[in-house]
């Protein structure tokens, strides 16, 4: 999905350079891998941080030298092309674009570097012999979040906040609403998107998420699920200060240091195994058998799911039983989760 919070890099990192990017020199023969971050950059406590965790794991376990590149504010495809080109020229393999926004750039750059594997997360539109599409069944994890929200809600009103109204985030909405309604047909789901493309601030600005969540709280929502990258942290803050539940996304946000002050209100998080998808692609390249084509992570393989880190969540036996049953029914094919609202 699309998504350091303090500032988006506007200088060297926009071209793919970083403190870890050696280019050439004594480390030139070492295996090198790179990730180019989505809107919000590293430090978003969510999508980008999950990708970084996969790179860090590869550094620690595979003796791979990692490089990172941050997005620049208001950038276009040409900036992404420049960034990916720089990373590929530096000898990184694979080069991974974090988010569907990298699709046009990867399509162009992958053709120019046929011996380099390119990964793209959350997109299947760009294909090639050296392109790996790392995708997830977000709607399945979101369905479970809907079940949990319906069970945890006392008011019968819950909220969904999408960062930007694009097909990917509509999958989160569709699964969530279906899970809520299948669990409590009388429940009311408030839905709001923060921005419309080409404005992607809805993935980057916490104040937008905070204001949207406050609006839903004022309308009686007592559980709010935000699929909005860095902006989602604002929704979590608002819910916490109101004494209501929030549901995190992409990473287990209960355990994110930047959200420590609000962790007790984070009921659960819809997790996407972005970390392992990044690690697995890097490992495949190092092993000489690079992944290509669609690599899908779903509920059956724990590629998506619900986190249970919050002790309060673990104490809700009826909620957990309902979530577990829903998971089994999805995996067994008894429930088909919609991908559009």
UniProtKB/TrEMBL annotation:
Source organism superkingdom: Bacteria
Pfam families: Bmp
Keywords: Cell membrane, Lipoprotein, Membrane, Signal
Subcellular localization: Cell membrane
GO cellular component: plasma membrane
Membrane topology category: Lipid-anchor
SUPFAM superfamilies linked: Periplasmic binding protein-like I
Domain ABC transporter substrate-binding protein PnrA-like: 38-322
Coiled-coil residues: none
PANTHER family: ABC TRANSPORTER GUANOSINE-BINDING PROTEIN NUPN, TRANSCRIPTIONAL ACTIVATOR PROTEIN MED
Family: Belongs to the BMP lipoprotein family.
Name recorded for this polypeptide: Lipoprotein
